[in-house]
Amino acid sequence: MSKKILSIVLAIVMLVGVCAAFASCGGGSDQIKAALICLHGDSSTYDKNFIDAFKTACANKGLTEADYTIITDIDEDTVCYDKAADFADNGFDVVFADSFGHEAHMLKAAKEFPDVQFCHATGTKAHTENVANFQNAFASIYEGRYLAGVAAGLKLVELYGDDEGKVSDENAKIGYVGAWPYAEVVSGYTSFYLGVKSIVANATMEVRYTNSWYDEAAEKTTALALIDAGCKLISQHADSMGAPTACEEKGVPNVAYNGATGKNTFVIASRIDWVPYFEYMLDCVKEGKDIDTDWTGTLANGAVKITAVGAAAAEGTQAKLDEVAAKLKNGTLKVFDCANFTVNGEHLTEYKADVDDMGDFVGETNVIKTENGVTFFDESFFRSAPYFDLRIDGIAEIK
Questions:
Q1: Reduced 3-state DSSP string for the chain
Q2: pTM score
Q3: Residue 27 above 50 pLDDT?
Q4: Least C-beta-crowded within 10 Å: which of 108, 209, 213, 319?
Q5: 251: left (phi over 0), alpha (psi -120 to 50) or beta
């Protein structure tokens, strides 16, 4: 072999080695770029939950800070579309938005940029729009809220139970701070209430709305109003520290959402862990695979979580939660078991929910199933985003 040919061969070998080291000759062309669009910043417990998960998933999948971008305080208007389109124009492979109101703008971007994946939390359109690069994702958070309700019920028994563990009607009243009267909130507070009721059969609940996902002053004021109305424990589906702060001031137990809140009154919290979805999303994009049109996370696959029990939790809470969680995971316990609640005094045998959400708010899908002798409302089966919008007996809703 001549020296010239040997030199060419060595150069090729060296080039192959460099390419292997960097995954491609372009210094990493198989690397992807990902973006997260958030409604608020990390002062919102809701958005912080997404931000933390996105950073973790990106790191776990080998993305550096140069490979991903997070933008915050993006309103549910055309600004969302503008940002999503900018990301597409600038070589991003996947864009995720975290708020329900972002959906129309993400869908518009997806139609205009078919080579970019647009993913969206809590939305309802992906399974009906049939846009190949637009996907929705959510989780069966009602499982976590049910478990949080069990912990709340145990706390009521610890504080107010008699020798037989029974709680008087006066002390069995709890309160709930809701953002909006949407199915997502209704599904959440109903599952929480059913968890409480599984421990305290005569529990009642009052729900008041702030008409905002994130308004710390309103959430605190609403929680205080519930406490003044005789509620002995407060939970929430709102995104600030307003309600937990009110509980701390009044010494009332609180069950939170998305993280531990309150030094002395915190019982437990439920949350969606978005790491499993983000990792799945990134893997699909890297490998050129389709992303599920309507992905649902569960307690069983690690997307639904409850925190460690707080200092205010009743003794024995963790053991009871482990027992109940096992039944939820294996399917022997259904959160919305129709035997455990009534609507206007009647147990459900059929209910048509607005699963396909064509804009007319008319239910078209019977969501009541019977399996193994149990009749239940099958939340999250027909669509990832909640569609439980029933007002069950025992809950007073104040809009």
A1: CCHHHHHHHHHHHHHHHHHHHCCCCCCCCCCCCEEEECCCCCCCHHHHHHHHHHHHHHHHCCCCCCCEEEECCCCCCHHHHHHHHHHHHCCCCEEEECCHHHHHHHHHHHHHCCCCEEEEECCCCHHHHCCCCEEEEEECHHHHHHHHHHHHHHHHHHHHCCCCCCCCCHHHEEEEEECCCCHHHHHHHHHHHHHHHCCCCCCEEEEEECCCCCCHHHHHHHHHHHHHCCCCCEEEECCCCHHHHHHHHHCCCEEEECCCCCCCCEEEEEEECCHHHHHHHHHHHHHCCCCCCEEEECCCCCCEEECCCCCCCCCCHHHHHHHHHHHHHHCCCCCCEHHHCCECCECCCCCEECCCCCCCCCCCEECEEEECCEEEECCCCCCCCCCCCCCCCCEEEEC
A2: 0.90
A3: no
A4: 319
A5: left
CATH topology of domain 141-272+309-398: Rossmann fold (3.40.50)
For the chain, give every residue range classified as CATH 3.40.50.2300.
34-140+274-297, 141-272+309-398
For residue 12, name the pLDDT band (cuts at 50, 70, 90): very low
- Confidence (pLDDT) at 4: 43
The single residue listed with the structure tokens 């104040």 is: 398
- In this predicted structure, the answer to whether residue 2 has a pLDDT above a threshold of 60 is no
Task: State the burial class of residue 128 (Cβ atoms within 10 Å of its Cβ: 0-12, 13-18, 19+).
Answer: middle
pLDDT reading at 19 higher than 60: no
pLDDT at 361: 83
Helix axis angle for 242-250 and 216-228, nearest 10°, is 40
Q: Is the pLDDT of residue 207 over 90?
A: yes
| pLDDT above 70 coverage of the chain, percent | 92
Predicted pLDDT of residue 9: 39
Question: pLDDT tens across 213-229, in order?
Answer: 999 999 999 999 999 99
Neighbours of 13 (CB within 10 A): 10
Partnered with residue 120 across adjacent β-strands are 97, 136
Looking at the domain covering 34-140+274-297, what would its CATH class be?
alpha beta
Q: Is 288 left (phi over 0), alpha (psi -120 to 50) or beta?
A: left
Q: How far apart are CA 386 and CA 142, in angstroms?
A: 9
pLDDT for 297 beyond 60 = yes
